[in-house]
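Hi all, posting the design record for the shared folder.

TITLE: backbone redesign
STEP: 1 of 1
STRUCTURE INPUT:
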């Protein structure tokens, strides 16, 4: 069967919305080989396979894109196949103008909320729970492309469980840059000007109680490493 190579450049709000994992899954489903990567301008991809599968890819790319993604433009061209053997998410390219759209922070999705209120889940009552469909974006981003190394999450080393989710194409946290859990992610502390009074869940409860009783509360984000 004749194989061709499709080169695709997608611009718009396509970073931090699970676009690369989506391309990965779509390509795998259509048995296409090649790669996808983030760049400072958008998402770049090359796909190889029979023309019919490549056409199906182009149609489904627009139709089934992740809910938060906004495609502003999609350029594609056909080239000669060069024989990619599998499909991979490549390291981001950092060269060129930084023109990709940056997403705002996104409110916690229903799947994450379900986990936060499930006492058997490891993220039970964990306030920094997020996935590719929700969580911080703009407020943690230091530069483009949107990769963990370019966010304030870079200093939090993922635990083995989070790491597994991050690398599993079938997990909704596949390449979720701020992925975290109580074991490896940031935590809340609550205190006076001079001392730490409580931490983690107790800090959260204390702040909630104070607000409920009409007190003023000051929120401050800071990262402290031991
Ligand atoms: Zn979520
Ligand atoms: Zn973790």
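Okay, here is what came back for every position:
SEQUENCE:
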């Amino acid at each position: 069967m004749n194989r061709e190579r499709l080169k695709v450049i997608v611009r718009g709000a396509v970073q931090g919305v699970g676009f690369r994992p989506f391309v990965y899954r779509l390509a795998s489903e259509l048995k296409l080989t090649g790669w996808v990567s983030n760049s400072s301008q958008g998402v770049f991809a090359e796909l190889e396979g029979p023309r019919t599968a490549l056409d199906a890819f182009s149609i489904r790319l627009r139709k089934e894109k992740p809910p938060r993604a906004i495609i502003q433009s999609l350029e594609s061209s056909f080239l000669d196949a060069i024989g990619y053997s599998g499909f991979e998410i490549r390291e981001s390219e950092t060269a060129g103008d930084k023109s990709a759209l940056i997403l705002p922070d996104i409110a916690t999705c229903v799947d994450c909320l379900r986990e936060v209120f499930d006492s058997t889940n490891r993220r039970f009552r964990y306030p920094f729970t997020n996935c590719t469909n929700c969580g911080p974006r703009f407020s943690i981003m230091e530069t483009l492309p949107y990769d963990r190394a370019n966010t304030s999450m870079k200093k939090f080393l993922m635990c083995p469980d989070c790491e597994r989710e991050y690398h599993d194409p079938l997990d909704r946290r596949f390449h979720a840059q701020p992925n975290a859990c109580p074991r490896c992610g940031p935590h809340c502390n609550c205190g006076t000007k001079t001392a730490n009074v409580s931490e983690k869940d107790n800090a959260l409860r204390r702040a909630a109680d104070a607000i409920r009783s009409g007190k003023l509360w000051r929120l401050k984000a800071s990262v402290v490493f031991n």
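COMMENT: The chain is about 25% helix and 20% strand.
Let me know if anyone wants the other runs.
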